[in-house]
Specification:
The complex is a heterodimer of chains A (434) and B (352).
Chain A: H1 3-33, H2 53-62, H3 66-73, E1 76-78, H4 81-91, H5 93-103, E2 107-108, H6 111-119, H7 128-136, E3 139-140, H8 150-159, H9 168-176, H10 185-192, H11 194-226, H12 230-245, H13 248-259, H14 264-269, H15 284-312, H16 316-324, H17 329-340, H18 342-358, H19 361-366, H20 378-387, H21 396-420, H22 423-426
Antiparallel strand pairs in A: 1-2, 1-3
Chain B: E1 3-12, E2 15-25, E3 30-34, H1 41-49, E4 56-61, E5 64-65, E6 76-79, H2 91-101, H3 106-119, H4 135-147, E7 153-157, H5 165-182, E8 185-190, H6 193-199, E9 202-207, E10 210-215, H7 217-222, H8 227-232, E11 239-246, E12 249-252, E13 258-260, E14 273-278, E15 283-284, E16 289-300, E17 305-311, E18 316-321, E19 332-337, E20 343-345
Parallel strand pairs in B: 3-8, 3-9, 6-7, 7-8
Antiparallel strand pairs in B: 1-2, 1-4, 4-5, 9-10, 11-12, 11-14, 12-13, 14-20, 15-19, 16-17, 16-19, 17-18
Chain lengths: 434, 352
């Protein structure tokens, strides 16, 4: 390797490291997480073993033996040392010793059975209230008891006298486990859920509308400012560039002020008999128009700058020639300027498709995906699933799976675009000579 | 069509580039606007085609006053220095663009474009894009596009500047041929006096926004109105000798050399300062009025050889000789000036 190669590698290193840290590693981790069922309830470290209402429900869904589930759900009464010590404390040594002698180690299916048994003893409490109280001291249940490992769990089951048939142990252990496990369920769930399709549809809608607005408005601004005197044009361009350099939160707050039911729009329209309303969130259509405009004005400013410089790069003699050839302003735009904006328009479309695919910040700030989930795009859906769930159960695994789909589509689209627009020739060495 | 530029004034901001210029171009004539860069020749051209607004004066195409008419409605054809072909259109679309803009019928356009392509010899190139054409071919396409709608005047802005030397020669005669075949009035803007002389009927030589002389090429060469014109016309250029009048002769500054003045241009007052212009072809070994000097530079041009001869006072005379290089650098020579062909100018540069 020559020294210049090493130098090149040296210059590349920061970029490689950044790509690694900010793209490759996150993507790999997303891929890993997407094949787990990690969530708030499983945690991201290991888990414990516990039978709880949720696992009971899952077991029922999975069709486990009715009897076993019944046993797990039922409260049992078992005469053991701990219970006897408590009886001795509350009801005296006599009863405790008598119970130990008569029933030690025995299990009773319910409280009535145990109460009846106690009634047979000599030193039994007199009131039925006390009898119940004494019986309760022996109440045992596996429900909501956490065991740190599998053997403790099985031990607990045995202590309660729950008997397992062949093959049930492994299944029961699986259902009782509260930690995360490897699974492909995220993807099958995704395909089955209607909300996924809604998010996908919203994303397509969002990209199509916003991109169209960006390009059309960007071209319009660029062409309009091209024909203005240069001082006016640069003022105009600066104004249109403001949304882009404004912090996102501020920009969206301005929009909210503009559209609130006590905001600018409502106030202005009130004298004309239009009832004040929240113009941003009133209907789904309002919300869509809002997010397309909010994103569109920002996106159009980029297009405006790119298209303006592309128009300026057209030799002035070519524009003179078209004027001398008799072309009016509109004809000049249509036949000379627009055809020469082909490449910048294509580039902007590619770039913005990819960035719109993953961007949800303005939507999150403006409508938060609402009303309902009518403006929830895929990226926002993934974000909410994984990191910002209203219900509180953050589904990291499912969210990662959603994000992975986005990464896949993004990479696929990039490769497709590069092929389609022949990136190599776009990057070809410039021809300085005519 | 006769073109009249009448008292034309052009200002950019506070700078007046052209003041009160008047130029009358006859119908079917090809006229050169010749001058150094910055003299206002291109500005004049842009004013004629309507890209620049005139700040004063009138512009007449025939009897029609087009001073305030926009360039779209002016009916001029322009060939720009870089041809300004539309890169996204092929040759056919480029040529037909002015007709398409006027929404002429497809059949009409087709016929006219074929005819024009035949005139400029590019029938085989119709499907090509400008980037696939050589400089000369692009030039032809630009000419065809300028001529397709039969303009009142054809304007050529340094049309040969971007061509290599061989193509330049070819296109020079081609442009002239096409102009003569179509009989169109044409204005050629150039800084190259050879181009102007070889292509045009008349030359308007410009300096600092003024036309300093307007005449036919040979008249301009042989009878320049000023030292500026004499210096601009001719290649290799004329050499100037400064001196003081002594009777009917001129004594060169700081030297013993005395040269006779031409009879036709005796200065009014004795002892006045005079600048003598000697073209290289009139400083030859066989001429009578000998001047001694040392050869300080030799340029072999093949058919001819150019010598710079430095006189005793440091002034330089050029001589162009068709014989081979007989002399060496540093040789002392005594060659003669043909005083009947010498041009005399007064101190301000005006011809005597």
């Amino acid at each position: 390797m020559r020294r210049s190669h090493l130098l090149g590698l040296g210059f590349m290193t920061p970029a490689i490291l950044l790509t690694l840290a900010l793209f490759i590693i996150p993507v790999v981790l997303t891929g890993v997480f997407s094949f787990t069922n990690m969530s708030t309830s499983t945690g991201i470290t290991g888990g414990a073993y516990e039978i709880n209402p949720r696992s009971i429900r899952l077991m029922k869904d999975a069709g486990l033996r009715e009897g076993l589930i019944g046993d797990l759900e039922e409260n049992l009464y078992k005469i053991d040392a701990a219970g006897l010590a408590q009886v001795e404390k509350d009801f005296g040594k006599k009863l405790a010793e008598e119970m130990k002698g008569a029933y030690d180690g025995q299990t009773f299916k319910d409280r009535r059975e145990l109460v009846r048994a106690i009634k047979d003893l000599k030193s039994r409490p007199r009131s039925s209230r006390d009898l119940n109280k004494a019986a309760d001291l022996f109440q045992k249940s596996i429900l909501n008891v956490r065991y740190d490992d599998e053997s403790a769990f099985l031990n607990g089951l045995g202590n309660l006298g729950i008997t397992l048939q062949d093959g049930e142990q492994a299944e029961l252990t699986r259902f009782a486990y509260t930690g995360w496990v490897w699974t492909t369920e995220n993807f099958s769930n995704m395909a089955a859920m209607p909300s996924t399709y809604r998010a996908a549809f919203n994303t397509v809608l969002y990209i199509a509308f916003t991109l169209t607005f960006n390009i059309v408005f960007g071209v319009f601004l660029a062409v309009a400012t091209f024909y203005l005197p240069s001082a006016a044009a640069s003022t105009f361009r600066t104004i249109w560039f403001l949304p882009r350099i404004l912090p996102h939160v501020l920009y969206v707050i301005l929009w909210k002020w503009f559209t609130w039911d006590t905001g600018f729009l409502s106030q202005v329209l009130e004298p004309f008999g239009v009832a004040p309303r929240n113009w941003m969130m009133d209907t789904e259509i309002n919300a869509w128009v809002s997010i397309v405009l909010i994103n569109g004005f920002v996106g159009a400013s980029l297009g405006m700058i790119l298209f303006s410089s592309a128009i300026k790069a057209i030799p002035s003699s070519m524009l003179y020639a078209s004027e001398v050839d008799g072309a009016s302003r509109l004809q000049q735009v249509r036949y000379i300027i627009l055809p020469q904006l082909r490449w910048p328009i294509m580039f902007t479309s590619i770039y913005q498709t990819l960035s719109l695919l993953t961007s949800f910040d303005y939507i999150y700030l403006a409508t938060d995906g609402g009303p309902g989930s009518s403006t929830t795009v895929w990226a926002l859906y993934a974000f909410k699933t994984a990191l910002n769930n209203y219900g509180g159960n953050l589904q990291y695994g499912f969210g990662a799976a959603l994000a992975l789909v986005l990464v896949g589509i993004g990479i696929l689209a990039s490769v497709l675009y590069l092929r389609l627009f022949d990136f190599k020739s776009m990057n070809a060495a410039p021809r300085i000579e005519q | 069509m006769r073109i009249l530029i009448d008292n034309f004034t052009k200002t950019f901001g506070t700078t007046t580039v052209i003041r009160d210029m008047t130029l009358d171009i006859e119908s079917g004539e090809m006229l050169a606007l010749l001058g150094p860069s910055g003299c206002g020749k291109s500005t004049t051209l842009f004013a004629v085609c309507g890209i620049h607004r005139m700040n004063g004066g009138r512009l007449l195409f025939g009897d029609r006053d087009v001073t305030t008419v926009s360039s779209q409605d002016r009916n001029v054809g322009v060939v720009f220095q870089n041809y300004a072909l539309y890169p996204h259109m092929n040759v056919f679309e480029n040529i037909s663009f002015p007709l398409k803009i006027r929404k002429e019928s497809k059949a009409d356009i087709d016929a006219k474009v074929r005819e024009m392509a035949k005139l400029v010899h590019i029938e085989d190139l119709m499907e090509r894009k400008p980037a696939q054409l050589s400089g000369g071919q692009q030039q032809r396409v630009a000419l065809a596009r300028a001529l397709i709608r039969k303009p009142d005047v054809l304007l050529l802005d340094e049309p040969l500047a971007n061509l290599d030397a061989k193509l330049r020669l070819e296109m020079r005669s081609e442009i002239r041929r096409i102009q003569q075949e179509t009989g169109i009035t044409a204005i050629l803007v150039t800084h190259d006096q050879v181009e102007a002389m070889s292509m045009c009927d008349r030359i308007a030589i410009m300096n600092k926004g003024q036309i300093v002389q307007l005449s036919s090429p040979s008249e301009m060469y042989n009878e320049p109105a000023s030292a500026f014109v004499a210096g601009f016309m001719g290649n290799p250029p004329i050499s100037f000798l400064d001196g003081t009048v002594e009777g009917s002769s001129l004594r060169l500054d700081q030297s013993s050399i005395v040269l006779p003045l031409p009879e036709s241009s005796r200065p009014a007052s004795p002892a006045s300062r005079v600048k003598l212009g000697v073209r290289p072809e009139y400083f030859q070994p066989e001429n009578p009025d000998k001047v001694e000097g040392k050869i300080s530079f030799i340029e072999i041009q093949g058919r001819e050889t150019l010598y710079d001869v430095t006189l005793e006072n440091g002034a330089v005379l050029r001589s162009i000789q068709s014989s081979g290089p007989l002399h060496k650098l540093g040789d002392t020579v005594r060659w003669g000036v043909d005083h009947s062909r010498v041009l005399a100018f007064d101190e301000s540069g005006a011809r005597l």
